[in-house]
Structures are given as structure tokens and as C-alpha cells.
Design brief:
It contains 19 helices and 10 strands. By secondary structure, the protein is α+β, with helices and mostly antiparallel strands. A 5-stranded mixed β-sheet has the order 6-7-8-9-10. Strands 3-5-4 form a 3-stranded antiparallel β-sheet. A hairpin with a 2-residue loop joins strand 7 and strand 8.
Length: about 450
């Protein structure tokens, strides 16, 4: 159904659906009959089962047409009615069916598209099927052993290090909050290309997700560690009316983790998805200033060169572009949700800089999410490590003293001791000016 689009109207939708059904009729050697998609599907099931016995019906991306118009209420209602009549034919042909399997990213309730198909079993979060859609670590190691060895040799790294990096980048999807799976699409492309790139994300609809995030003023960190009940995991709601967390969860950008205060918690599956979402956020911020990509090479060169002045300059370009008022709600909610001991505005500065670096492909560890008592950000790029501490100046605070204190904290707490070739960077952000007004750097 990914070949079917609802954007161009009813006639185009019908035409594409008829084309797919005709192609299936030809493949099974039966006459293509019917004047509408629902009639053609009913006749196709009848004719195939008559010729070959009970039919198996496999539908992939069943919700693709609905997702095209999910944010347009009038169109969505019309397309939903069309698709409901189409899928109803499967229920009507029950006695001629051996098996039905339907996949999609969204959870349209039984009262919607599948209201007439009350014999469907949802296996989305059923532990018996928890490892069906993806590679477990054991499967990856056993079935890709030759590819792992060849890739490690080409990249000139140890097998164990390669596996650790592949796990970090492509593992982590979970359908039950326990089992973790590698993304098959990304794993296959990685062993073909032998390069850490965002294969799955780029194969999907990042422009659609970018628009969704921008229209709703979403940040990246606001969803990490959010509690989720079993009811949420099973029924996150109709995607048109779902919360942002529910939408991103259904779409595959958030996944389940073991819960702390709730049954589950939400997080991004892996580095591929987290970095890609972070890049979208940064591009959304910069797009208002007509410079969505001009920052990339500048900041990466400064990070590689150890150029603190250049890094601060690029950070300030970002900070000056943040729509603070739009993001304020997300900041307040996140601080409350996670019980952070700093203010919403500090969370916003920290999380935006963090997303900025991750979106550049820089590997970053952050105290913001883990709370393990380390520096605000530790970023690694081109064999150089940046250990960063951030202080917020408010109501006449001395930014110079705050920058001194930030650098001293890095040194006194030993945040940089484990790294060679590290740059310690203490920063003071003036909240009134919304920029880094003082910084101290030391190698």
C-alpha cells in the first residue's frame, strides 16, 4: 500500500489500488474483475481461492494512504471510509481465507478502519512475537559472521569494537520493553556499504516527521524516559488524535524500555534514530533564518581543530535562532516529568545544544539524560574530546565568574581526566541576551 497515495484525490487513490490488484490477479493467473477496489479485492480473493484453495492475504503498510492526510480532518474522514470499505472485503471472505497478516506503523482502532474485522489479533506487543521483526544480537552474530569479519578488517578495527559500534548505532528496537532488535534494513545496508550512516531514517519520510515536529514545536529530549503504561503500549490511540509521544511511538521513532515509575518508558531505539531526529530539530530551528545546512562544516571544523572561539560562535548562532516561547511548554513538562533540579530554560539551552551536536553526527554523552554526575556534555569528534559545562546567568549574575566556575568544576571533578587530547570548555549563557557571553577554554 506504500504505492497508494491519497494526496491527489479519490480518483488517483482508486487508480493505484486497482493497478496493484490487477498486478496480483496476473501473478496468480486469474482474470482481473471489478469496477472498484473493494469489488476487485473481493473477486480476487474468490477467484484465487477457487483456483488454488484458501488464500493468504498479506498487506504491508496498510495505513499509507491514511497517513498522507492524517492532519487534514475532512480528507482523513473520507479516506478512512474508503479504506474501511476496502478492508471490509477481507472479513466478508473469511471462509475462503487461510491466513491474514497486516502491517503498518499506526494503530487505527477497531472502531475505525478495522471495525468490520473483529477477528484480527494484534501482536504488536505480544511477547510471543517480540523478536519476529528484527535481528536479535545472537542472530546477527551467528548469521552475519563472515560479514562482520570482513567489515572489521576493512575498517581496521577489532571484531568486538565493531560489534559494539553496530549495537550502539542500529540495535534497540523493542516491541515488549525487554527484547532488543537490530533494524534489518540498516544492518543489511551497513554490511553492504560498511559505513555508519542513517540508512533506515533516510529511507522513510523525514520531511513528514520534520513537519510534524515543527508544527507542534517538539524538541528531542522531551520524550526520553517518559513513562508509558501497558495500555498506552497496546492502544496509543488513533494517530490523528494521538499525543506527540503516541505518534512517534507508533511511527517507530520511539520504542519501549523497561519502566521505572511506570510499566514502560519511552526512548529512541538507537544512535541512528536519535541523531536523525536531532538533525531535524536543528534544521527546523535554522530554517526560519534560511540557513538550514550552512552551519555543519563550520562547527565540525572548529571541533576538530580545538577552536573554542569558533565553537562558541556557532553555538550562539543556534541559540539566537531558538523559538524559546514555542518550546517553553516542552521544557516545563520535561523538567517536571524527570524531576530535574534545574530550570526549564536551562533544560532548553542544554537539550538544544545537545541535539545540535548529535544532529551533526558528533558522538555526545550528556548528564542531561543520564543524571550520573558527569559534565553537561562530552563530545568526541576526529580524535578530539570536548568536555563542556554550562551555567546560566540571570538578573545581573556575573557571566565572567560563572564561566570561571564552570571551567573550575570540570577540573575539580576530574571530568576530563579519562580523555587524552581533551578541551575543557566552561560557558556562561546570559538568559536575557540568549547567548553565550563568557567562556573559558583549556586544553
Amino acid at each position: 500500500m506504500s504505492e497508494v497515495s491519497a494526496n491527489e484525490g479519490r480518483e488517483s487513490l482508486f487508480s493505484r489500488m486497482m493497478m496493484i490488484l490487477e498486478r496480483n490477479a496476473e501473478r496468480h493467473g486469474v482474470e482481473f474483475r471489478g469496477t472498484s477496489p473493494q469489488e476487485a479485492l473481493a473477486r480476487l480473493i474468490w477467484d484465487v481461492s477457487a483456483a488454488k484453495g484458501p488464500a493468504a492475504v498479506l498487506i504491508d503498510e496498510y495505513d499509507s494512504p491514511l497517513l498522507d492526510v492524517f492532519d487534514n480532518h475532512d480528507k482523513s474522514a473520507s479516506i478512512r471510509e474508503i479504506m474501511r470499505d476496502f478492508y471490509k472485503q477481507i472479513k466478508a471472505a473469511d471462509e475462503r481465507l487461510r491466513f491474514v497478516f497486516i502491517t503498518g506503523i499506526s494503530k487505527f482502532s477497531r472502531m475505525g478502519v478495522f471495525s468490520a474485522m473483529n477477528n484480527l489479533t494484534d501482536v504488536s506487543v505480544d511477547k510471543k512475537y517480540g523478536t519476529m521483526l528484527g535481528y536479535t544480537e545472537e542472530e546477527l552474530i551467528a548469521d552475519f559472521s563472515a560479514h562482520i569479519d570482513a567489515t572489521a578488517e576493512e575498517m581496521n578495527i577489532e571484531r568486538g569494537e565493531l560489534l559494539s559500534r553496530v549495537k550502539d548505532y542500529y540495535d534497540g528496537f523493542s516491541f515488549d520493553g525487554v527484547a532488543r532488535l537490530y533494524n534489518p534494513y540498516s544492518a543489511l545496508y551497513f554490511f553492504q556499504r560498511r559505513d555508519f550512516l542513517n540508512y533506515w531514517f533516510e529511507s522513510g519520510t523525514p520531511s513528514f516527521i520534520a513537519k510534524y515536529m515543527k508544527d507542534r514545536n517538539l524538541t528531542v529530549e522531551q520524550f526520553r524516559g517518559t513513562g508509558a503504561s501497558k495500555d498506552f503500549a497496546v492502544s496509543p490511540g488513533e494517530i490523528e488524535n494521538s499525543s506527540a509521544a503516541g505518534f512517534l511511538y507508533q511511527s517507530g521513532y520511539l520504542t519501549l524500555r523497561p519502566g521505572t515509575s511506570d510499566d514502560y518508558s519511552l526512548d529512541y531505539p538507537n544512535r541512528e534514530v536519535l541523531a536523525s531526529m536531532s538533525r531535524l530539530l536543528t534544521e527546523n530551528i535554522f530554517s526560519a533564518y534560511n540557513e538550514p545546512g550552512s552551519y555543519r562544516n563550520l562547527i565540525l571544523r572548529c571541533l576538530a581543530d580545538g577552536d573554542a572561539e569558533g565553537v562558541i560562535e556557532q553555538f550562539n548562532r543556534l541559540l539566537s535562532a531558538i523559538p524559546y516561547d514555542d518550546f517553553a511548554g516542552a521544557a516545563r513538562a520535561s523538567v517536571k516529568e524527570h524531576g530535574y533540579k534545574f530550570s526549564p530554560i536551562e533544560w532548553l539551552y542544554r537539550s538544544t545544544l545537545l541535539a545540535y551536536l548529535r544532529g551533526l553526527g558528533v558522538k555526545v554523552e550528556a548528564e542531561l539524560h543520564s543524571g550520573r554526575g558527569r559534565a553537561d556534555m562530552v563530545a568526541a569528534h576526529k580524535n578530539r574530546v570536548w568536555v563542556m559545562e554550562l551555567k546560566i546567568a540571570r538578573d545581573g549574575d556575573d557571566s565572567s565568574r560563572l564561566a570561571d566556575r564552570a571551567l573550575a568544576q570540570i577540573a575539580e571533578m576530574g571530568y576530563a581526566k579519562r580523555y587524552s587530547n581533551a578541551v575543557m570548555l566552561g560557558m556562561a549563557i546570559d538568559d536575557a541576551k540568549r547567548s553565550i557571553t563568557e567562556y573559558r577554554a583549556q586544553n
